Structure to design on (580 residues):
């Protein structure tokens, strides 16, 4: 008899591959996501670039400043799609079949999470390309681009983990969608459009300082605008995102165990 | 590892104090074909989910393939194949891809998975449609693919939750043939749930009738028919007075008679043979039923019978 407990890595690989195939077979879901994040980059750059003339910007390129916002907000479609994929699996009974295999619950949730993360990284790559087309200059050079993509990867894992966890708790598309609304306070209660020093309201300063996305923005902006002269914001960004990944992926794996039971 | 199931006094209470399973116990031997027969909402699916690691019982002991379901869910999953009431198919994958995917998760190498998928496609007659998206399959094809996915790792025990509900007769027969073969030729233990008396009768070595979360009767099909196999003669009258008189006229020690308002029901082992007698008795008193029906034992009658006896407290487990 051939049966044996599957290997964690090969299970995760098989699950991820299947999620990617499923995404690619539904282009009408991922193509609008790609388009919308590039649209935001255009709009922010066209409408807000005048802010960069303010002294607090110290002559920085606004495009480099706003690019992280475009990348981070792309997660709602890209990485957030992982949650929608999960709801579909729950609806058509495929998720129960996955739970009946000997694969670990973590491998089962990592499939859609990694696929969502990859989708976000590809989106980010395209956004950076469009950025270069618009005149983006990256102080950190090629290595800087790699660091930004690595940060994106971490953010993608964290956000996809969250959206999968919410989908497993909510079990329907509407509630899962509602769960992604946390994204709005995350992205806007931060140093989204102006640097920390220029935030006026005291409450927003407090919100921004406890918002993990702020550290992600700071890390990406440091690399894009200043390069590697001050590495602490970059390290801090990676630490915060790693912590966030740990929390959200654990949340989704624990939710997977409870997904079918109604107690 | 063996193909046995051992269940001791399991209970499952859902949120809101909904008691889906109330103290169920049974044993299934290695290689046995065992059926759970019951109406919708009897607790059949909940029992399957408890046995297959998808739900945790509120209390009780569950052993499947020799492993404690609570302590060793992974080992249980390796030993069992489960086809739930709702098929578990990703419509965005092709039939062949789904089978290869399933095989990979059960530890097959890429090459082995390919080979196994090919065998199973042949087995369930889907070779020609293997490279079409499963979302485009008909209901019967989806059922067959679902069964094939269940069989990927050659499980020792097969759980089938209402595998033929909603299928046309041809597809139903095809599924029956295959599960019969698995049981007879490969010695697979089978735990099947069904709402159809005929299905349990045709397939199972032993049947438990489950109602409202409890087992109300257990036996071989022949045994159950002996205890429950009554024809029902139903007499309907326009007036309740007539029904009362008719009840007095036909009541006998040889069979069971019941009256509910204008209806008199006679449950007899051989309804047609006493029919003439019943009509003669009614004629003598000049009673004329508005309607008269003779029905073979239906699942409904079995339930009326069993639950009546349950109320009277006179039923064996």
């Amino acid at each position: 008899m051939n049966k044996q407990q599957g290997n964690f890595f090969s299970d995760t690989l098989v699950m991820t591959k299947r999620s990617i195939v499923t995404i690619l077979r539904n282009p009408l879901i991922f193509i609008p996501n790609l388009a919308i994040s590039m649209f935001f980059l255009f709009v922010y750059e066209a409408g807000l670039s005048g802010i960069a003339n303010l002294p607090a910007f110290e002559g920085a390129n606004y495009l480099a400043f706003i690019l992280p916002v475009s990348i981070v907000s792309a997660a709602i479609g890209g990485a957030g799609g992982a949650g929608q994929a999960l709801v579909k699996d729950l609806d058509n009974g495929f998720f129960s079949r996955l739970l009946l295999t000997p694969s670990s619950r973590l491998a089962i949730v990592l499939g859609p999470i990694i696929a969502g993360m990859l989708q976000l990284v590809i989106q980010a790559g395209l956004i950076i390309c469009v950025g270069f087309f618009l005149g983006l200059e990256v102080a950190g050079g090629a290595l800087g681009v790699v660091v930004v993509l690595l940060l994106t990867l971490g953010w993608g894992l964290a956000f996809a983990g969250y959206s999968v966890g919410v989908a497993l708790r909510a079990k329907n598309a509407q509630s899962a969608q509602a769960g992604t609304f946390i994204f709005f306070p995350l992205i806007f209660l931060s140093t989204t459009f102006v640097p920390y020093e220029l935030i006026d309201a005291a409450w927003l300063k407090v919100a921004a300082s406890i918002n993990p996305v702020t550290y992600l923005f700071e890390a990406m902006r440091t690399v894009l605008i200043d390069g590697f002269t001050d590495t602490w914001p970059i390290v801090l960004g990676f630490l915060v995102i790693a912590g966030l990944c740990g929390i959200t992926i654990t949340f989704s794996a624990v939710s997977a165990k409870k997904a079918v039971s109604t107690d | 590892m063996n193909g046995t199931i051992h269940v001791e006094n399991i209970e499952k209470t859902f949120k809101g104090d909904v008691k889906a399973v109330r103290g169920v116990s049974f044993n299934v031997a290695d290689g046995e074909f065992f059926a759970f027969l019951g109406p919708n909402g009897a607790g059949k699916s909940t029992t399957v989910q408890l046995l297959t690691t998808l739900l945790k019982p509120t209390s009780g002991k569950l052993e499947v393939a020799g492993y404690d379901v609570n302590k060793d869910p992974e080992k249980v999953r390796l030993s069992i194949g489960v086809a739930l009431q709702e098929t578990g198919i990703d419509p965005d994958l092709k039939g062949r891809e789904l089978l290869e995917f399933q095989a990979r998760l059960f530890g097959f190498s890429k090459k082995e998975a390919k080979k196994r998928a090919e065998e199973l496609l042949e087995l369930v007659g889907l070779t020609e449609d293997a490279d079409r998206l499963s979302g485009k399959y008909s209901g019967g094809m989806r059922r067959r693919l679902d069964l094939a996915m269940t069989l990927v790792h050659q499980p020792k025990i097969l759980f089938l939750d209402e595998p033929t509900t909603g299928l046309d007769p041809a597809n139903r027969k095809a599924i029956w043939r295959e599960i019969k073969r698995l049981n007879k030729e490969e010695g697979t233990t089978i735990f099947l749930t069904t709402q159809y008396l005929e299905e349990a009768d045709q397939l199972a070595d032993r049947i438990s009738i489950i109602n409202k979360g409890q087992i109300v009767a257990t036996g071989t099909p022949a045994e159950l028919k002996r205890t429950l196999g009554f024809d029902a003669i139903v007499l309907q009258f326009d007036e309740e007075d007539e029904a009362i008189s008719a009840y007095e006229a036909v009541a006998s020690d040889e069979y069971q008679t019941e009256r509910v308002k204008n209806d008199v029901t006679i449950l007899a082992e051989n309804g047609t043979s006493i029919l003439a007698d019943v009509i003669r008795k009614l004629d003598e008193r000049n009673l004329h039923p508005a309607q008269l029906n003779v029905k073979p034992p239906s699942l409904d009658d079995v339930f009326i019978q069993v639950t009546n006896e349950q109320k009277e407290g006179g039923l064996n487990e």
